[in-house]
Every structure is written in structure tokens, then in C-alpha cells.
Amino acid sequence: MEKHVVVIYPHPDDEAFGASGTITQFRQQGVPVTYLCGTLGEMGRNMGNPAFANRETLSEFRKQELIDACEVMDVELRMLGYRDKTLEFEERDEVAEHLKGILEEIEPSLVITHYPEHAVHPDHNAMGAAAIEAVKRIDESKRPKVWAQAISNNHLELLGEPDVVNNVRPVFKQKMQTIMAHRSQAQGVLGKMKDDPEAETDLEAIAMERLGTESFYTWKFD
Ligand SMILES: [Zn+2]
Questions:
Q1: What is the distance in A from the centroid of ligand 1 to the CA of 146?
Q2: Closest listed residue to residue 127, CA positions, set 86, 172, 69
Q3: 10: CA distance to ligand 1 center in Å?
Q4: What averages of pLDDT result for each successive group of 10 residues across the chain (222 residues)?
Q5: How far is residue 86's CA from residue 149's CA, in Å, rounded to a whole number?
Q6: Neighbour count for residue 29 (Cβ, 10 Å)
Q7: What are phi and psi of 25, to 5 degrees?
């Protein structure tokens, strides 16, 4: 059993779509989970459907959605305060040291983050790389495992099969609640998963098909 799990992603909702089933399963086992969320996603394009946020108010909405989502998952939340869409321009070294300090305080047994270069968005790649660098700087005897999440289209081809494959359908209700807590984002992101945008398909059914499994690669430090 894990001692403590730390999840590191740049945007509010990355955790919901990517790992909230796994997080819920850890919480059901009584494992403490902390989410280090890099930004408030304030540069996002989704403003709700129908729109209820605008460029000025989006960060406040997303902050509250993030807090609500963490309440659904029953995890501790720490907001790191970086600016959305600029993480790739932050000094990797500084972000890694910042994360290392927090990891040394929490002493997790497992860190979940994005797989650098296989996480599609520059913020995802930058945060994943900084997280892995942070873990690498921790003395080997105290170093937590890292589960890296790849979401690029060609990751299976280039990385092979992920070694951690979690079936999260048994907790899909909670996963859906976590996703829906991100009210300004949920409809927009789920809607894009429809093959036929006109089809009257149940979003939850689409989500189950696309998000019912959460996979990770155990990072190999050399
Ligand atoms: Zn994201």
C-alpha cells in the first residue's frame, strides 16, 4: 500500500480527466493524496456552456472548480501559482527545486505526473519534466516511484504498453463527479470526444469509453 501519493499536473481538470479514478481508488484504501496544481488554467478557451465566465473571471471560476473537485476526490490541494500557458518558459531548475521542497516535506511513496514529450500540451510536458527532475534530485533511498502519464497519439508506438493500467469503471461515478466539478471545462472537453458532434450521445457513456482506464508508465531513473 502507498504511504502518500502526490499528483502533479499544471491545470485544474488535468487530474479529473487523467487520474481521478486512480486517486479515488487510493483514497478508498485510506492513502493520503495531495494534488499540486501548477496554474489556474486562466488562459483556457472554455468559458462554460453556455458561457458564464470571461477572460477576467475565468481564473476565479477555475480556482473554485478546482477546490470543489478536490473535495469530491477528498484530497489535499496545493496551488503552486504558476501562470497558465507559460510553464514551458519557467526555469526548469527553479520549478524542480520548488517541487523538490514540497516532496521532501510530504515524503510521498508515489508521484503521478505527465510523461514529458508525450503529454501533448507544452505546460503538461514542462510540468512533467520538472516533476521528474525534482524526484531525481531526491536521494535514491528516499525517492518515490513516478507514474508518468502519456497522452500523445503515438505513445504506444514509441513507448510500448504502459505497465500500470487501472480499470476505474468501478469508481466512474466519482470520476464523473470530479470532471463535472470543473463546470467551465467539462462540457467543452467531453463534447470534443464525440465522433459525431451532431449525435445525441450521452456524455457519460462517451466518457466511460474514453476515460474508463487510466494508464501510466513507471519512470525508469538511470
Ligand atoms: Zn491540462
A1: 19
A2: 86
A3: 6
A4: 98 97 98 98 91 93 98 98 94 97 98 97 97 98 98 96 98 96 90 72 82 97 88
A5: 21
A6: 8
A7: -65, -40
Q: Which residue has the cell 476515460?
A: 211
> Separation of 154 CA from ligand 1 center, angstroms?
18
Please name the helix (run of DSSP H) or strand (run of DSSP E) that holds residue 166, with its range, or none. strand 164-167
CA nearest 5: which of 160, 110, 152?
Answer: 110
Distance between Cα 123 and ligand 1 center (Å): 7
Q: What's the pLDDT tens digit per position in 47-72?
A: 998 899 999 999 999 999 999 999 99
CA of 141 to the centre of ligand 1 (A): 31
165 CA → ligand 1 middle, Å: 21
Structure confidence by residue, pLDDT tens digits, 8-31: 999 999 999 999 999 999 999 999
Rounded to whole angstroms, the Cα distance separating 36 from 29 reads 21
Please state, in angstroms and rounded to a whole number, the distance separating the CA atoms of residues 77 and 120: 24
Measured distance CA(211)–CA(201) in Å, rounded: 16
Contacts of 90 (CB under 8 A, 6+ apart): 82, 126, 130
d(CA 104, CA 141) in angstroms, rounded, equals 12
